[in-house]
């Protein structure tokens, strides 16, 4: 049953919230589905949940900068109680600020991170400073839209706003240890002018969304690039479930090319005219055949034994916990090294820092010992090299060792990108795309942790949140298995590619 065939809904206009308003700005179909069919959304992946949890934590910390503030504790489900509590706090002149205040106007309910009371002088009325707290490191357009709907509701509810601000993480803050300087951790930007421009469009946008919500079926909107900006739409899988495997939006690379092809009425990759100018990656996807470069074998033979296959995992903390680090700085906490001898024998070394203490020195010392002085160091991106350079800069005692190690780095990613393609890559050369196509036995599907963002989130939970030792042990085991899979994958990829170079698979 498609969307248009769904049974009619009662003609009742649900209340909007600021999150649903932002969803409607992205796509009217998205806000319709969020209101009428939230069960069709795909579950939030662990990485997204970690981002949301970090945002909540940052919001709580930000409140401590406003002494005497009152938290409106009623949950989103207790709408009426939250509105009543908020009104009583707003009316109390002794309260300097309120957190998570609930306000409603024109059928739109918002919860406000921070509302600071600004006492009037010379008989002037009390006004308020609206502050939205974000865990991001800069002001984004979606933040301005967020504040536009909040300010429209607040002013509609009768409040006077003296200014509208966005509070975000200041990545220039150099943490020196001890207590975090919250005045330095946060930057507050006055965005009143930019928000005022956007607020003028809010009433018409709200009216349009309400009109859409009155219909018995969602609007017929084709999925496209808007589904991924400013956020990934949770209804992507639902809206694309009937699309062909070779749907034109699966073409990688420049989306301008895709948009032009769509304008020409092209719906699948196989319909792309032969004269269309495509990038090499796009052409590979269009050709849809396995390709092995004649130079693949030569490229693979540049490696030197023993081959160290390494992968690093890092954590990026919004609130730095280690001296001489900054917010969102990548902090290495784990590595895996599968070592292959020329005989084919493979041994495995690994490291995982499991304490809430500075991890980098122990991490570096163990890695340097594992890598020794001989053999190539196989990686699958420039990330590992960048992390070693960062450590060499931060800790001069490791500089000479890392300088020698860096000369041995051998990146498998450009070797594959320049010399091999499989149709199952679908234009992507990430290891998550390459591994299932080349070495399906080593897919990540059997692992509890399956992506780097999830690994970082679980590491944070293990070290800084979880207190149950059994749960901590389970997370530790999952992290070790995930990182080890990454480096074992490099071993297997090299093995399969050597077979391809010896004549297996198609060649040009």
3D structure, described in words:
The chain has three domains: 1-218 and 225-242, Alpha-Beta Complex (Lambda Exonuclease, Chain A); 243-288, no CATH class; 296-501, 2-Layer Sandwich (Nucleotidyltransferase, domain 5). It is 41% helix and 17% strand. It contains 19 helices and 14 strands. Strands 1, 2, 3, 4, 5, 6 and 7 form a seven-stranded mixed β-sheet that branches. Strand 5 (127-133), helix 5 and strand 6 (161-169) form a beta-alpha-beta unit.
Strand content: 15-25%
CATH topology of the largest domain: Lambda Exonuclease, Chain A
What's the overall geometry?
globular
Second CATH tier, the architecture of the largest domain: Alpha-Beta Complex
Largest sheet: 7 strands, mixed
Cα-based radius of gyration, to the nearest Å: 27 Å
Relative helix content = 40-55%
Q: Number of DSSP strands?
A: 14
Low-confidence stretches: none
- Using the coordinates above, name the CATH class of the largest domain: Alpha Beta
Count of helical stretches: 19
Broad structural category: alpha/beta
Distance between the termini: 45 Å
Q: What is the average per-residue confidence, as pLDDT, rounded to a whole number? A: 92
Tally of distinct domains: 3
Summarize the structure.
With about 500 residues, the protein is α/β, with parallel strands linked by helices. It is built from 19 helices and 14 strands. It is globular and about 85 Å long.
């Amino acid at each position: 049953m498609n969307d248009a065939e769904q049974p009619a809904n009662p003609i009742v206009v649900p209340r909007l919230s600021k999150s649903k308003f932002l969803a409607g700005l992205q796509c009217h179909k998205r806000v319709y589905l969020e209101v009428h069919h939230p069960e069709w959304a795909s579950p939030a992946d662990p990485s997204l949940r970690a981002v949301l949890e970090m945002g909540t934590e940052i919001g709580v910390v930000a409140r401590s900068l406003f002494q005497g503030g009152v938290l409106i504790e009623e949950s989103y489900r207790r709408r009426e109680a939250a509105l009543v509590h908020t009104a009583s706090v707003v009316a109390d002149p002794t309260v300097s600020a309120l957190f998570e205040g609930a306000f409603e106007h024109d059928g739109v309910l918002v919860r406000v991170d921070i509302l600071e009371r600004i006492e009037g002088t010379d008989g002037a009325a009390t006004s308020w400073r609206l502050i939205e707290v974000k865990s991001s490191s800069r002001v984004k357009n979606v933040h301005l839209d967020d504040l536009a709907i909040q300010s429209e509701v607040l002013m509609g509810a009768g409040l006077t706003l003296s200014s509208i601000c966005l509070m975000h993480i200041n990545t220039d803050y150099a943490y020196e240890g001890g207590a975090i300087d919250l005045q330095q951790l946060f930057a507050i930007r006055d965005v009143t002018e930019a928000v005022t421009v956007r607020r003028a469009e809010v009433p018409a946008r709200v009216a349009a969304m309400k009109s859409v919500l009155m219909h018995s079926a969602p609007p017929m909107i084709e999925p496209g690039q808007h589904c991924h900006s400013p956020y990934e739409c949770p209804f992507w899988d639902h809206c694309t479930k009937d699309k062909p495997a070779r749907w034109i939006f699966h073409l990688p690379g420049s989306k301008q090319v895709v948009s032009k092809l769509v304008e020409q009425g092209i719906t699948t990759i196989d319909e792309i005219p032969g004269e269309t100018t495509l990038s090499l990656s796009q052409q590979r996807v269009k050709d849809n055949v396995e390709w092995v470069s004649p130079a693949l074998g030569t490229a693979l033979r540049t490696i030197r034994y023993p081959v160290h296959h390494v992968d690093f995992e890092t954590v990026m903390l919004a609130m730095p916990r280690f001296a001489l680090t900054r917010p969102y700085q990548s902090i290495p906490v784990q590595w895996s090294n599968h070592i292959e001898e020329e005989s084919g024998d493979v041994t495995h070394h690994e490291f995982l820092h499991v304490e809430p203490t500075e991890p980098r020195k122990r991490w570096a010392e163990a890695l340097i010992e594992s890598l020794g002085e001989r053999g190539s160091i196989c990686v699958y991106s420039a990330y590992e090299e960048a992390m070693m350079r960062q450590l060499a800069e931060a800790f001069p005692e490791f500089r000479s060792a890392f300088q020698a190690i860096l000369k041995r780095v051998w990146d498998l990613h450009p070797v594959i990108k320049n010399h091999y393609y499989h149709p199952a890559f679908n234009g992507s050369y990430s290891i998550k795309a390459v591994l299932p196509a080349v070495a399906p036995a080593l897919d990540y599907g059997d692992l509890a942790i399956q992506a780097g963002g999830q690994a970082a989130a679980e590491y944070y939970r293990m070290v800084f949140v979880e207190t149950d030792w059994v749960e901590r042990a389970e997370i530790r085991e999952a992290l070790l298995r995930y990182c080890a899979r990454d480096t074992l994958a490099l071993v297997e990829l090299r093995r399969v590619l050597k077979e391809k170079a010896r004549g297996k698979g198609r060649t040009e």
